[in-house]
Amino acid sequence: MRVVATVQEMLDTRSNVAGSSKVGLVPTMGYLHEGHLSLVRLGRAENDVLIASIFVNPTQFGPHEDLERYPRDLPRDLHMLEAAGVDVVFTPSADEIYPPGFVTYAEPTGPLASEGESAHRPGHFRGVATVVLKLFQIVQPHRAYFGQKDAQQVVVISRMISDFNLPVALGILPTIREADGLAISSRNAYLSAEDRKVATVLYQALQAGRRAFDAKAGDGTAAVVRAMVETVTQESRAQLDYAEVRDPQSFVLLEALQAPALLVIAAKVGPTRLIDNFLLRADGSWETGVLASELKWVEEERDR
Ligand code: AMP
Question: What does the pLDDT average to over 119-129?
Fold first, then answer.
């Protein structure tokens, strides 16, 4: 496995890959876990060359967020990626990605930029879209893999690929969870033993929301939201940021009970902010969704 720290070296490595080879990219912020590894495994199976990136992207953190204390363990991450069969790991510094003079950003507009996560983390998706666009330009993958765990991020990236005609196909993988339902996250490392028990409240709220959705109460998605809110407010150590029902393609709020629907939730458990979501589909299945499969056309275009 090659570890590459500069943009120039990554460009050189990429240009050495044969033209017919399929290249996959798994972007991460490191401190890897089973969620990341599920992306790596599919990427390994679907591509000739698999590239993972580890970059704690400063532009997606707000001024009072956890950039400095975000968990990091590069030796352990490299060991895990090598064992999973990754070919190249791109580990740039912040200066490499944002050199002096950097001024140009990619930024979503509309509900994606002002609602959901954006209402609580202004500018977050500007940082995400910018770094993902840069990674796509530098690595030039045919396919890129992301987790449904970050549902709004998936919508931002799907839209960016479509809006900018980027020749990248998206693979969106289901959320990997602990046995009690807690979505695995690098930030779970912040949870105290007590908060770790409480943290399942997000999953429980989503389950309550799903049941309300299936029960089809007369007042549309309001009953679903109520069920999620009530579940979280029963837990004194949890403080709800939002519980919403949204269209998984456009991210607009849904009032009527229509599928597919995205139940999104964010709450602080003690000092730790956690997010989770369920994708409810028209066939009654949930959560195991691949949101952006229709974007495969982009790859077909490129292969012609
Ligand atoms: P991060 O390192 O947190 O930026 O995550 C890198 C990628 O892994 C993103 O596409 C995430 O959505 C994905 N991911 C994070 N946690 C999970 C999980 N529990 N299950 C599946 N994918 C995940």
Answer: 98
Least confident of 144-158, 227-241, 288-302: 288-302
d(CA 88, CA 104): 27
Ligand 1 touching residue 173 (CB < 6 A)? yes
The predicted model gives 175-179 an average pLDDT of: 94
Instruction: Give the C-alpha separation, 3 to 255, whole Å.
Output: 48
Q: Is the pTM of this model over 0.90?
A: yes
Residue 181 falls inside a structural domain: no
State whether 141 and 219 are in the same domain: no
- The CA-based diameter of the chain, rounded to the nearest angstrom, is 60
- State the distance from the centre of ligand 1 to the C-alpha of 27, rounded, in angstroms: 9
Whether 186 has a pLDDT exceeding 90, the answer reads yes
Residue 198's CATH number: 3.30.1300.10
Shared domain for 86 and 152, answered yes or no, is yes
For residue 258, the CA-to-ligand 1 centroid distance in Å is 27
The protein residue whose alpha carbon is closest to atom 6 in ligand 1 is: 28
Would you say residue 114 has pLDDT above 70?
yes
Q: What is the mean pLDDT of the chain?
A: 92
Within-domain flag for 205: yes
What residues contact 238, with CB distance under 8 A and at least 6 apart? 198, 201, 232, 267, 268, 269
Residue-number span of the structural domain to which 202 is assigned: 186-300
The answer, yes or no, to whether any atom of ligand 1 lies below 6 A from the CB of 170, is no
